[in-house]
């Protein structure tokens, strides 16, 4: 066995130290949310860095009240339906752009991708007027539609590039066996697109779950508010229940974290399976 040189050991120690520092910097905010969520407001104001002297569950009672749970469900409905429709629409569009290299499809592709350069909040007033005219203002549909349109350009771009890298021999073999284009899309392209679908799903879910400005403008009824709006309920006219806000942020971030870790695992599995099959 070769002995490690002192410089190699020092380099590895430096890498481990760097990883530990990054872990502390990224993990401390979550830890800060956890132990402050068990503090009352007076205890929090006394020392925000000290762990709670005794567990205070009042913040969680507020967060898990029926009203706040309604906000949570509304955000879940908007985000889940939005992610599903974005993946469906974007994958169909990307399939056409990747498999048919005509001038028309190339022009439409660049037109769709150009939507990434449009700041989403510049469309707020036109979409507000449109939602009133078509009768969807103050409904969850007023959020789902714009959220889908904002995420389609980047989703189409990601999926198109991924579909283009797939071996053409798979498509040709399916055509020889009499497979239709939709069968190729459903049986071949989509099952092999786990990494792209997971990437689009995580990005779309994150943007929809955390969006605030459109929800603030498009939703007026309290029972139809999303989680990002519901957190404002802890803001009073003169005081802010900061521990309750931190608890709401902690609970609200759990679906994002869970969805991210599940999708991350699917990305790794998809890449591994692709390497083994190749």
UniProtKB/TrEMBL annotation:
<dbReference type="GO" id="GO:0055085">
    <property type="term" value="P:transmembrane transport"/>
</dbReference>
<dbReference type="InterPro" id="IPR035906">
    <property type="entry name" value="MetI-like_sf"/>
</dbReference>
<feature type="transmembrane region" description="Helical">
    <location>
        <begin position="240"/>
        <end position="263"/>
    </location>
</feature>
<keyword id="KW-0472">Membrane</keyword>
<comment type="similarity">
    <text>Belongs to the binding-protein-dependent transport system permease family.</text>
</comment>
<protein>
    <submittedName>
        <fullName>ABC-type transporter, integral membrane subunit</fullName>
    </submittedName>
</protein>
<feature type="domain" description="ABC transmembrane type-1">
    <location>
        <begin position="72"/>
        <end position="263"/>
    </location>
</feature>
<feature type="transmembrane region" description="Helical">
    <location>
        <begin position="15"/>
        <end position="35"/>
    </location>
</feature>
<keyword id="KW-0813">Transport</keyword>
<dbReference type="InterPro" id="IPR050901">
    <property type="entry name" value="BP-dep_ABC_trans_perm"/>
</dbReference>
<feature type="transmembrane region" description="Helical">
    <location>
        <begin position="200"/>
        <end position="219"/>
    </location>
</feature>
<dbReference type="Pfam" id="PF00528">
    <property type="entry name" value="BPD_transp_1"/>
</dbReference>
<keyword id="KW-1003">Cell membrane</keyword>
<dbReference type="InterPro" id="IPR000515">
    <property type="entry name" value="MetI-like"/>
</dbReference>
<keyword id="KW-0812">Transmembrane</keyword>
<feature type="transmembrane region" description="Helical">
    <location>
        <begin position="80"/>
        <end position="102"/>
    </location>
</feature>
<feature type="transmembrane region" description="Helical">
    <location>
        <begin position="108"/>
        <end position="128"/>
    </location>
</feature>
<feature type="transmembrane region" description="Helical">
    <location>
        <begin position="140"/>
        <end position="163"/>
    </location>
</feature>
<dbReference type="GO" id="GO:0005886">
    <property type="term" value="C:plasma membrane"/>
</dbReference>
<keyword id="KW-1133">Transmembrane helix</keyword>
